[in-house]
Amino acid sequence: MNAAAVTVRPVQTKADRKAFVDLAWQVYQDDPAWVPPLKDEVHGLITPGRNPWFEHARAQLWLAERDGQPVGRISAQVDDLVLTHMGAGTGQWGMFEALDADAAAALIGTAEQWLGDQGMARALGPFSLSIWDEPGLEIEGFAEAPTVMMAHHRPEYRRWIEAAGHAKARDLLTYEVDIAHWSDLMIDRLVKAGERSARIRIRKVDKSRFTQEAEIILNLLNDAWSGNWGFVPLTESEIAYAGKKLKPIIYEDLVRVAEYDGEPVAFMITLPDINELIRDLDGRLVPFGWAKLLWRLRKPRVRRARVPLMGVASKLHGTRIASQLAFMLIEHTRRACVAKFGIETGEFGWILEDNKGMLSIAELPSARVNHRYLVYEKALS
After folding, report:
1. Cβ atoms within 10 Å, residue 13
2. H/E run at residue 64
3. 332 in a domain, yes or no?
4. CATH number of the domain residue 84 falls in
5. Domain membership of residue 119 as a residue range
6. Superkingdom, according to UniProt (predicted)?
7. Consecutive sets of 10 residues in the chain, 381 residues long: mean pLDDT of each?
8. In this structure, are 193 and 269 located in the same domain?
9. Which of 148, 171, 194 is the endpoint of a domain?
10. Is the pTM of this model over 0.70?
11. Strands (E), 273-328
């Protein structure tokens, strides 16, 4: 290990932000499972004025350097909505990358100090930047590339974070299932019974009414997830922002809304694994990345799809109709994935380890946990 001292300094300039984003390419240059993110998306995430998360939160970014060269990065953030919904004094950290243990220790210590100076009593992370972005540290599934909107990390990070005194708060799980060859007689009967019911309608979203559809789905999301650990509601600005970002990768066949007696009460968003389409772009959309990506998005042919968001109205939680609607959404979307997109594998998640309702749905026949993420907490003295 290089014996030169590590220095940590705040990100202040445009050049600093570029170094902050670009560091990931150095960290993962020899990792075949890493998928380079689109750099413009990462810059958008961390830039006030582009990401409406900053309307209710503040973040500080740092770079760790040795001999003037970046060797790590981290963020620390205070979110007013987290303070309201997760408890006063709950600060968060994330965007963590490091090339060695010394850089990791210096960065984590710096983030903890800043959170303490902000009056926080507890550090929770990693979140990049919120639970709606890339939550948790990957601790299982390193050999497999992550699907769209999921994180990938170095195995050493777990040891380095725990050495700094951080302990488990929650595990987040993703499940993989062979959707091309999946069937279950009991679920099939449940789905067919629902299809015969005049009270139930499973419909595709209408992209010509995208703004209204996005509002229906994301308001349902806020309601359905409101009882989950870590839940923070999406604001109106964030709903509009998420809708704008997701629109290019939304396909009507893969996003469904369930109506009961004419009222939208459940939804499921399925995304083709866009990581398969951007992997060779190396994070760049210019000069030719835009054209390549737009062409590929016209009719994506990918091996995997991910269900990042699914929910049933809270008033139906624990009822038979809730399970029936969930399995109907899954089956209708599964058929389209296989028949229209050639998708073979579905991934559900992330799902909290103690969310028994969602786990019972995700644990379909032949399903297996393919990735596990860990959210840490630490009391700040």
Report:
1. 8
2. strand 57-66
3. yes
4. 3.40.630.30
5. 6-171
6. Bacteria
7. 83 97 97 96 96 98 97 98 96 98 98 98 96 96 95 98 98 95 88 95 94 89 90 90 87 95 96 95 90 90 94 92 94 94 94 89 86 98 78
8. yes
9. 171
10. yes
11. 304-312
